[in-house]
Inverse folding.
């Protein structure tokens, strides 16, 4: 059985240095903080949307469960 590590494809030591160097060359030192700020905002928006969807799903499940319980109690009372 072949097991792949989760971190197998992440850059390590020198690869990370090369990636940072290329980013510096492409965008320059002044542009990087703007890029990181934008990336942070994007991640924050994604997490907020994910949280909203999870809450809506949980609420829907609670409503469905409460309806089932209500139906069962009405059947037993009849």
């Amino acid at each position: 059985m072949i097991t792949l590590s989760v971190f197998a494809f992440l850059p390590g030591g020198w690869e990370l240095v090369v990636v940072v160097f290329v980013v510096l060359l492409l965008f320059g030192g002044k542009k990087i903080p703007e890029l990181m700020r934008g990336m942070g905002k994007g991640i924050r928006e994604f997490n907020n949307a994910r949280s909203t969807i999870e809450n809506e799903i949980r609420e829907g499940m609670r409503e469905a469960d409460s309806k089932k319980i209500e139906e069962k109690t009405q059947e037993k009372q009849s």
In short: The chain has a mean pLDDT of 85. The chain has one helix and no strands. The two ends are 57 Å apart (CA to CA). Residues 34 and 40 are 10 Å apart (CA to CA).
